[in-house]
């Protein structure tokens, strides 16, 4: 990775819930085209961090910059329009729609139809619908569930719903995608498939920030890793550096060393 | 991939609506009962309100217990502008719709910050305020005595006076409202609205401006209710505030839920069910229980609403569609056809 340009900078970010400091003065920078992992034990504050970046939760202090623009106080939909989309740890598919409609809803910000042109169904609306439908099929093909396109989303098995959320997040061609535990609930075949999907999308220029408990995956696909424990950043670096960080090993990795290092190529 | 493929998701054929309305418009050929047409005309007025309300409640998942207010604003705008100021009824309808839209926008901005019960209460309160205004601004509205002498509507020299003429007039409006609304539902906008009901947090995360969408659809539904109220005023030629009490708002919601809140055709079915049951009640209850007062309607429909929510939460039309698709699935089909059926069930209205 030669010319590194930062895409997301988190500076001294803190979140306090009542008396609990869920995220404590965390800073890191994600470069364009990177696959960047955030790891840490349960309750470390990873999801809270994601919720602050995507505007779901206001931060207590600190700053977030996306391509030099400050994100604090922006609403989630505005952040999506700037080019950051996400998936959710606890699935949030639109269970009142079919799979393909879910993905087409992900393309919302790339479309122009408004309530009047829609109501009158102008030719431009129909054209846009067809184009979006084609793109949705492609997005579903990319994650390998295009055969389920016309099923109701809530009838999908858990793993497929995760893949659906990724297709929905990716169809608008965002610059940065946040994945909150994308492998949770996937079987090993689905996980392997998802890793391929992420690597392929990265080649197309997308940047990934993801939270994951599956160490093997984290070590094999990440360019950089940040380790959080109890809201505090306790380590940062490449997968190799993380393994050599005694504080991290003590706090988190424990006895998982061998398999992780092998997987890293 | 061509335009045919869109049919896998949405059935936009206008054949169904056309057949329905042609059949409906043939009714005068076989019957000339004024009673029948007064009933069918009332169904039309209610259906027009419910079509708007169902996009708000059924698709966007936002409750309103204040739509009688817009129905009333339309009616009083038309009454005052044509009756007092002699304006052309069509101009009055448009002005009424604009007033309703502006009121909806002003009321909607603070109100849609609320959710669930609070939203229901706020819209109910709004309805009561507007009702009180109809009653108290008596120099303009005639107060509790009502507003008399609203002139009939006319078009190219034809005066709408008979029940049959209003029957045609209102149902033409319903026809276009159905098409317009269905087009909205089957588009980016419809998905935006439904995503709010599906998951607000995910809708927000894909870039749907929730507030903006709620407001737009609230305004649209207010316009539908307003136009319906305007036409009603010309039809009955006399209106009073009691037509627009909170109960009316509640009845609108009951119609929407009975018919099927996520289905545009449910609006018509719900309105028809309501008018029919109401007529039966008015006829038989005084005969069977001579001591019962005028409040039995709200009790009856209240119970019906509760029963619907328990035993048929999706309402009549979706229930009916499920039966049909079950029946279809029994015949051997290939995979593609199979998914067409389930996709149609999804799209909601495949008439
Ligand atoms: N809305 C909230 N109100 C109060 N406390 C919260 C809230 N959300 C999270 N917390 C607390 O903040 C801390 C961090 O939670 P968070 O969900 O960010 O952890 P996490 O790292 O994502 O954990 P997991 O791996 O289990 O998903 C926890 O102690 C949690 O109880
Ligand atoms: Mg989490």
UniProtKB/TrEMBL annotation, chain A:
MF-aspect GO terms: ATP binding; ATP hydrolysis activity; L-isoleucine transmembrane transporter activity; L-phenylalanine transmembrane transporter activity; L-valine transmembrane transporter activity
Superkingdom in the source lineage: Bacteria
One Pfam family recorded for the sequence: BCA_ABC_TP_C
Domain ABC transporter: 8-255
Any one GO cellular component localisation term in the record: plasma membrane
Keyword set, alphabetical order: ATP-binding, Nucleotide-binding, Transport
Keyword Nucleotide-binding attached: yes
GO biological process, one term: D-alanine transmembrane transport
Protein name, as recorded: Amino acid/amide ABC transporter ATP-binding protein 1 (HAAT family)
Origin organism lineage: Bacteria, Bacillati, Bacillota, Bacilli, Bacillales
Automatic annotation (TrEMBL), chain B:
Compartments where found: Cell membrane
Membrane-spanning ranges: 12-30, 36-56, 68-85, 91-109, 116-134, 166-185, 217-238, 250-276, 288-312
Membrane topology category: Multi-pass membrane protein
Cell membrane as UniProt keyword: yes
Single GO MF annotation: branched-chain amino acid transmembrane transporter activity
InterPro entries: ABC_transp_permease, LivM-like
CDD domains tied to this protein: TM_PBP1_LivM_like
Keywords, in A-Z order: Cell membrane, Membrane, Transmembrane, Transmembrane helix
Transmembrane found in the keyword field: yes
GO annotation, cellular component aspect: plasma membrane
Domain of life: Bacteria
Name listed for the protein in its UniProt record: Amino acid/amide ABC transporter membrane protein 2 (HAAT family)
Organism of derivation: Ureibacillus xyleni
